[in-house]
Design goal:
4-stranded antiparallel β-sheet, alpha+beta, globular
């Protein structure tokens, strides 16, 4: 069964290592999005040097407010297990604070995953 594997990475400095680990584990394509959690936006990630009236651009440019969300679609439960193990080898135990979260979602259909050059 196809699975969407998604991970919200807390420490963006670990992105390259995580991409390498997932690629080495067998992920064929990985998409990365910039993302921000509610806690960070509402003050859990605030700093003393934030302007009183920050512009949206200033907020979007601050690295400490960002996560990276990675996702890939895979067709093998063993590969899902390898991706989870690879993620935890990079970031540590995902049950610990400030590492990230990882989850899977069953995929009913996926078109364009098995592309071949003409």
């Amino acid at each position: 069964m196809l699975q969407l594997v998604m991970m919200v990475l807390n420490d963006v400095s670990q992105l390259d290592a995580l991409l390498d680990a997932w690629s080495d584990a067998g992920a064929k394509g990985i998409t990365v999005l910039h993302s921000t959690g509610m806690e960070r936006l509402r003050g859990g990630g605030s700093r003393d040097d934030t302007p009183l009236f920050p512009s949206l651009r200033n907020l979007l440019e601050r690295d400490d407010l960002h996560h990276r969300t990675l996702f890939t679609v895979v067709d093998d439960d063993a590969l899902v297990d390898r991706l989870i193990a690879a993620a935890q080898a990079v970031v540590g135990d995902l049950n610990q604070a400030n590492t990230g979260i990882l989850f899977t979602i069953p995929v009913g259909r996926a078109i364009g995953l098995d592309r071949r050059d003409p």
